[in-house]
Design goal:
Oligomer: single chain
Helix content: 55-70%
Number of strands: 11
Largest sheet: 5 strands, antiparallel
Strand content: 5-15%
Amino acid sequence: MILRPLRIWWLALALVLGLWWDGQDWTYPGGVTLERRQRRQRRRARWLTQEFLALGSAFIKLGQLLSARPDVMPAELVEELATLQDRVPAFPFTVVQDLLEQELGERCAEIIDLEAEPLGSASLAQVHRASLRSGRQVVLKVQRPGLERTFRLDLEVLQQVAAAVQRHPRWGRGRDWIGIAQECRRVLLRELDFRLEAEHAARFRQQFLDDPGIRIPAVVWELSTRRVLCLDYVPGIKITDRQALLEAGIVPAAVAEKGAASYLQQLVRFGFFHADPHPGNLAVAPDGALIYYDFGMMGQLSGQLRGRLGTMVRAAAARDASGLVAELQQAGVIAPGVDPGPVRRLVRVMLEEALTPPFSANVLERLSGDLYDLVYGQPFRLPPELIFVMRALSTFEGVGRSLDSGFSLVAIARPYLLPLMTSSGSGSGVGGGSGSGGSGDRFGSELFNEISRQAAEVGSRALGIPKRLDDSLARIEQGDLQVQIRAGETDRLLRRLALAQQAAGQSMLLAGLAVAAALLAASARPALVAIPLVAGLPLGLSWLKLQGRLKRDGRLDQLPGVGQG
């Protein structure tokens, strides 16, 4: 335990220095390219994943949480950490028996057949199949011994690391590392309480009680405690095992559609969703029902976000990027004060890609990448729930393609989103039928709704014009009205001029140091030549870096269309 804090500090320092090194153009021999930078960052991400696995339970869970923060981690790290799965050896069966006796006491007598070989072993716990006196087949999820002590030690060191990084003038700018560390501590310590997971499982099961196509294990409450969770044993075929599904007479395409539909229901209808639906947590029952496992990581859409969901969907359907961004801002998805221009441009591209047929097979995967690129290094504060939603939908998209080459998540989503497009979303069912009216009635209704929406929007803007004019006049009178002009070509020329002046100044300094070195070399004390040489080393590296930036800007000016119009 004494060496563990030192190892964590070493990892933090190595990661920070590594990210800094990867961001310096002069560290790439032969010149930097986007492909070379991404290749190096992927290697860095694989290294970090292995380090987290070696550090054990707390860091495996920490990596999964950080994978939901593309605003503070590069895209390559986010994508690699999202695949972080537990590969932890099982602990002895005698330890399992001792812990069950400590937690359950006399209730252990209800367990008559506990299998020694675990069904699975993860960072927090391992799972054993058992039979109860009543004949009920169950699984027991038993927490690893001494886990809470290790968690608290690791999280305390991480708090210290976050405080140190926050004080750095560059690394801490625009980042709330202390707040992130505190949030990770709160979430991870909650995961150690299996009673919360039992509540999640029960709530999740309640949502699908009336759906025979979805199956969630029931909780055995009398055998569940803080460190033991008892659920019904619900076996199934792994969802990605296409051959086994075919042999069981199950249509893979139907499974893919059922999985995507169930997740859309979680988002649109309930707002409470499974935040870790990787293929290991999904299975298919012999009758074709979809089975969910592991309810430690669950997400919940805020009431404010769900309340505005209908307006967002209508704005997206109309490809109104400005309206959608405004709704996202009002729902708190985008932090106030952030320049909406880059967000609006990305949303416009995303809507074109997502809503223009023929639909790309991996549209969500590419949109996630665009989102990660937008938020990293920018003052965005996207809620982790939104990232979990994007990741889960991307997961279902990948699973669907593996089961059915013609799978389209966008096409499946339409029946669930249509009620939100044609109504305010309140009191309407999800995925409702077509009703008794014909296609002409539906078209007329949609057209009327769209005309009404646009008329209301125009009226709202017209009513707001006097207030906006009054606010602008007041700001002019107070002298705090700012006018921002963006001229790409002028900005580029001014930047090149500043770089050229800086390079010229450094060239003169280097020349002076070279003359000083030559004079000292010819003097009676030639050893002093080391002084100008050492002083000139960082200056020379900076000069080379400036030359690279000037050369790169020169290549941009030669590209057709750059800086024109």
